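Notes to self, AsmA family protein:
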Amino acid sequence: MNFKKTLRYVFGIFSVLLVAFTFLLLGLKQILDQSAVKSLVKEKIEHFVNLNVNYTSVETILFPFPGIEITGLRIEDSSKLICSIESIVLKFDLSRILNQEFQIRSVEISQGEIAIERASDGSFPIQSKFKSDAEELEEGREKAEEGPQALFRLLPKKLKIDGILLIYSDFSNQTHNEFLVKELEMKIDKEDTSIHLNLFGELNKNPINLISVTSLVKNDWNFSSLRTNSQLKMDHFVLSQMGDFIQIFPKAELTDAYFDVFVKLDKESENHVSLEVAKFLFTGVKNKKGDTFPFFSMSTKLMLQSEKQELNLREFKMDYGKIANLSATGEYFKDPGSVSSFRLASDRLDVDKLLTYINLLSATDLSKSNYFKENLDSKEQKKNPTPTSKLPDIAVDLDLHQLVASGRYISFLKGPLEFKDPNLQFKNLQIGIFDGSISATGKFDLKSMYLHTDAKLTGINVEKAIGSATKDKLLKGKLRSNATVDLYLSQKGRPQTTLRLKSAFHIDKGQLLGYANFIKPVAEVGKLFNFSGASGDSTSFESIDGSILLINQRVQLHSFEMKGVGLNATGSGVYDQGGKIDMKFTVALAGVVGRAVKLPIIYRGYYGKNFAFIDPVWLATVYTGTMLGGPLGTVLGSMAGSKASEKVDETIGGVKNTFQSIKGFFTDDKPSSKTTK
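result:
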């Protein structure tokens, strides 16, 4: 019995609620069917702007929230169509609609076009159509000044757009761009002052996807209050779809070029911002000849700490096809009192080819694009000289392998660099080159362009080193050297004229080849001394020691000493500008009478034209003995040769008066001071 009473009671309450809800719906429909409500959108738009607003129909919606649907909305300026929307659905807040207060809960806009124009004088004609005295505009300004929370209360909770084409025509720079909003959903949380955004669109038919959650944790419009977690993705973004943009690259052909991008931006605290370029791939680049360049890809992770003015490079990776790669980490401090530090690493880096690619894209002419040309003109008018400030100190640790620079292969480049404005300093910088290594310490003044370095060379393959500068085969062996280099790399004049080089060197187990084989003339007379160490084409040696001094493009060779097979040699001389040579070497051979025979070898003339020859004075003296014939002549010739050898170091000059020179050798007299020079 009690159960039946309870059931009737529940049924009665339900019936009352149902009747009440029915009357509520009828009341809502009656309210929404009022002509004032149906003309709400038209009145609101015309209240803001001086434009003609028309629509096809307005229908009432009751579920799931009460509202209206406007179809065939058209907004025109005279006869020019500005906006055409197939459907707009406005849903209202149920709690306020009964009091005939139409607080918009959500907005849904589907299918249509919105055209925005910029006139040739740079103005937007649509701006003149807005009514500056509109109450809602003034209310919006006041709410914005109060802070985000007051403004957010005026906004709908949800905005949904699909199939809306935004057309932007700029007659000031003759550009035309279209952005298709394929799908946009925005949720607004008035309590948290946050916006959740999900956008799928196309910019000039290039797909773009943006996902973002943004909020303001304080009731302030400032950076410290901002929080965001956003992602931007663009796949197969074709540059040629961007009007005349590609024309600013005069050396590149970018008709088929496109890029893929995936970027993440996070700000989860007051002062920390994280930016991650998870993917950047650029491909399809060609030069004007039609040569295709490899793909370029990059990824990076950055952390900005605004209170410390610190930029943390957590990761940087770059690949240029199979030609080059580079990775980097480090920290950058804006404070000049702090030292920023970075580490660069690579296992292949063809600098030449990479620079060719960079130069292809960096050689820009912004005047080729109407948009950039307009901005260049405005910047020129506002251009003011900016005061230079001291750059922060930066330390870089290099760990690079398999480099190619200026056509030269460098197996490794390792060590520290320090930038202290204006000097770039390096200490024990290790360079692997020509099968050996160089350890360099010095500095480069970026202001005066002056370079000073002290270098230690070990195990350098001399043949490869010379081969990098000339095709001539001159010398083989392993070089060990201590060198000091001073150079001004000024853009004015020729830097080589300022080069100063001082070096002491040692070469192990090698060969004199070609033009450098000053022993070659010895092979022609070697039978006189039972010597067969020189084959004529090359001369082997155990070691060579010496020093050189280069000043004003003039190389001075000092203290040259060679230890060979069955012979030794000493020498000195000068290699001057234009390939002019003036050198003298003395080759010591074992004589048949037990005394060393010294052969004076002379280089005089020009490189490649005049070859090494035996001093004709010495040669004539030796022949004095050999022309006598027989054993006695050989002995006398050797003795004469020994006698002449003792005078070699005193007659280093060239033979300009042959008679006087021969007389000096034979009579043991020095040339007269009256000898013609």
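- The first helix runs from residue 2 to 32.
- Residues 24-126+154-190 form one domain.
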